[in-house]
Each structure stands twice: as C-alpha cells, then as structure tokens.
Design brief:
By secondary structure, the chain is an alpha/beta fold. The chain contains 23 helices and 20 strands. The protein is globular and about 70 Å long. The chain starts with a strand and ends in a 22-residue tail after the last strand. Bound molecules: thiamine diphosphate.
Amino acid sequence: MKLSGAEILVKCLKEHGVDTIFGYPGGVVLPIYDALYDADIRHILTRHEQGAVHAADGYARATGKAGVCLATSGPGATNLVTGLTNAYMDSIPMVAFTGQVATALLGRDSFQEADITGITMPITKHNYLVKDVSELARTIKEAFYIANTGRPGPVLVDLPRDVSAGIIEYQAPGPINLPGYNPIIEPFEEQVVLAANAVNESVRPIIYAGGGVVSSGAHEELLALAEKIKAPVTNTLMGLGGFPGEHPQFLGMLGMHGTKAANFAMCETDLVIAVGARFDDRVTGKLDDFAKDAKIIHIDIDPAEIGKNVGTHFPVIGDVKIALQRLLERIEEKSLTEWLAKCMTWKREYPLAFFNEGGLKPQSIISEINRLTLDKKVRITTEVGQHQMWAAHYYNYNYPRTFISSGGLGTMGYGFPAALGVQAACPDELVIDISGDGSFQMNIQELATAVNYELPVKVAILNNGYLGMVRQWQELFYDKRYSYTELKNPDFVKIAEAYGAVGIRVTTRDEVAPALEEAFAINKPVVLDFVTEREENVYPMVPPGCELKNMLG
Ligand SMILES: Cc1ncc(C[n+]2csc(CCOP(=O)(O)OP(=O)(O)O)c2C)c(N)n1
C-alpha cells in the first residue's frame, strides 16, 4: 500500500487510539492538514499554538492518555515551548508534531525555520527530527511509547515538509527496541523490605503524596496504605484528588501555601513516606530544616528523583501503584496512634478560614462552587496565582484527575485552554476554569475555540484588578509598593458576548449562587466575572526560604 508521510501519520494516530488533536496550520504542514481533511480524527483549531498545547495537556490529565498537538514550523513550533515545558515539569504524556522546512533547506535559515529539536531538547522527554519518510511510522510508535511509559512526559516529532509529502510503500513498524530506555516498573524486593521495616518501626509517619499517585492510578493503594497504618496524608498541588479531600486523615496541601496541620506534621514526623512526589522547593521550604528528625522513604518511578533535593534513606524505585501494592503486603496494621490524634487536633484548631465580611470574598466563591457541584461530575482547571491556591484550598477533590493545574512551571494562561482539552475529552462533565483577571487575558482568544467547537466550559474569573499573587508579595515583602501589578481590565462580559459566549457579572454575595446555577445550566461557554475584594491575601503562607512551621496568617 503506497502512502504519503501525512497519511502514515494519520494512520498511526488512529492505531494509537487518538481521537482528538489540537492544532494550528501553516505552509509546511499543509500535506498533513490535507490528510486530516477526510480523516476520522477530530481536529480542534485553537486560536494560538499555546492554546493547542495546553489543550492537549488538559486532555491528557483528564484521561491519562497522551495528548496530541500539531503546529507548523518556525513560530508555530516555538509557540509550543511554554506548553511543552509545562507538560515536562508536571510529567504529562504528550506527543507534539511540528512541521519543518524540507530536509534540503535545513540549516540554511530558510523561511520559518527554527531548530525546534534543539530548542526543546531540555523540555521534552525525547524528541525526533524525522529525515526520511520510511522512518516515520517507527518514530511515531516510539514517540507514544516513550511519552506513556516510565515517568510520562512530552515527546516532540519534527516533520520536514518532504517527509510528510513523500510517498512510500507502507510497512508496519516492528516491535519497539530502545536500548538504554528501560523504565523500572517492578520495584526491587530489597528496597520494599527496607521501606516496609521503616514503616513498621515508625511512630509518627506521614504520607506525602504527589502527582505520581494520580498518573499511575494509585489512589486506591494510597488510601489502603493510609488506613492500614493510620497515617495522616498531605498532598502536593499536583497530588490533589489522589487522596479523598474529605477523608478524616487528610491534612490538606503542604508547603508554601499549605495548611498549618500539614506543615506542623511535616516538622514533627519521624518518617516521611513520599509517594510520587519530588520535594519541590514550594513544598519543602528551607531545605536544611525540612522534616529534620525524619527518615525518608521515597517511592518514585524515576531514579533521577532520588536524592535530588533531599537525602533519601529508603528509595523504592518503580511504578507507584505496584510499589504501594508490594509495600502493603509487608507492612503491619497500626492501631489509632497518639500521633494521628495530634494531627487531627491541629486540623481542627487551624482550619483554613477567612472573614466573610465586606465585599465579595474569593474564598467564598470557591466554597460556593464546591457546595453547588457536590452531586455533579466536575473537573476544575486553574490558572496561576491566588485564585489557584484558593481553588486548591476551598474545593474538596475526592477523585483523581478532577483538579487540573500547572504545578511545576506555574503557567498563567494554562487553565482555560486546558479546560477546552478536558471538555473535549469529557463532553458530559462540568468543566470549570477558575481564573484570575490577569491569567485569563493570557489566552483569552481561546474563547473563539470554545464557541466554535461548542465546548461549554465555564470560566470563573476572580477579578481583583491586580496580578494578585504578585501584589500579595509586594504587600508583604516590598512595603506595599505595587509596582506594575494593577490591571485596567476590559469588560469581560462584553468580551464573552463578542466571541459568542455568555457573560455574567457578579458583584454581591447574594448573586453568587444564582449566577453559578445559571451558568451551570447553560450549555454554552460562560464567563463569570466575579468582582472581588481587591486586596485579599492567601494564607497560611511560609515566606520564601523559611522553615515550614514559620507561617504567616
Ligand atoms: C506566564 C506567567 N507570567 C508571569 C507569572 C508570574 N505570576 C505568578 S502569579 C501572577 C499573578 C496572577 O494574576 P491573576 O491571574 O490576576 O491571578 P490572582 O493572583 O489575582 O488570583 C503572576 C504575574 C506566571 N506565573 N506566569
């Protein structure tokens, strides 16, 4: 069977179960777009390549399947850079295809040539420049394999125009053979034994769970572990939903904007059981003081994570789900401990709280969203800033893959296009992007995509007229010198309407619930402009570089 490179690409995508791709065309990808014209794959045309890559990322986080995006050469490809870095930092499986100038023009500063494999080397798990159409099918097979296995991540495949236009006699690729790429899935028994002994001996254990729990589907094993040893559990931002938010043993998120209970517990524990988490500096605070008196078990699929930020006493390398299963077989059940009781007392004494007086409080809006969606299938995405932290604090994530947010890179402009990817993947669910007024304007053009493809996402803008999180730092550490953080915003309701979406403005407390109910009932994209108190702060807060127990608020 004779096929063009572009036809091979479409065939391979279908064979990998890809039903949706997000992209933006250009000259060198015209052969691919031509092949997509009659293909049985949904292509969503975003309004910016950054929108496409974040949408693919959202799709991946919601489904666990690799997200796929496509961009043209040069500026199209470089517009993917933020989204690829974002996916790389959060270990999200993705395959990004970029067009490239024809092989004969490579290296000549040709029109719209950018060395995207060079540019993305440090921000992809792996990347390829395909120089011959005969290598295409094998390359695509490898790309999906690498993106999905081991520690997941983004893989980029750069396709010169003559490769996608070239025609060959198609041959199905053989089995994958990648010497040097051997992710460890099954942990070594000796490591499990040592870790299990440490658990059995500990009297004040704490489970610190990250995004690896979500990506490996280990939430049931995590719950079983916590209940068997009666340990308190704290999550990273990426781990939210990996443990039920309403569980009595849950202490909430830890770190810079963690709860007092979680941070105090981390300071007094004798054993940190880190599960699929990477000891990010937003979590550890001052490294020298992090869990000073504790031994550390670190369960992770990526050996490079062991000892990267903190010394590990008991590494367990392998798939988190399998590692927890092995650990569960070897640990002894603990009865209710004084330690857990102490953690529960902290949780009761220092709940997340805010004064619900005066103007519209952002925290109360998230609490209201929580209350009104208890009985619904909901996915929350966020942008980056104060609203992201409030979304983490005041909504209870009881299921994995329901909280979708940019963790490692902290990318403003992520949440809205990600929400489009989530909605494309989950058409029957309620998808809400909790946004700031600054962040929403970073990819506001994707309102056109939402309307065009009838993706009925809801955007809840917590509009404080500031780049709020930066303003908070200026207030606390720069003597309230608000240097370039005030925003003069457009009328978000009119903007929504101009794009063909629905806009609702909310200025008083009484309007919050009815506005949310109205928005949830409309089967169209809705922008809710919540005009909030301008100078509300996110607390608790560990000032940068401080020990976790030194919290403001
Ligand atoms: C692309 C990008 N640029 C800059 C920043 C730095 N930054 C972090 S939070 C923030 C303010 C966010 O403001 P807004 O979206 O209005 O949310 P708020 O904090 O007010 O809730 C900024 C500028 C970032 N995280 N991402």
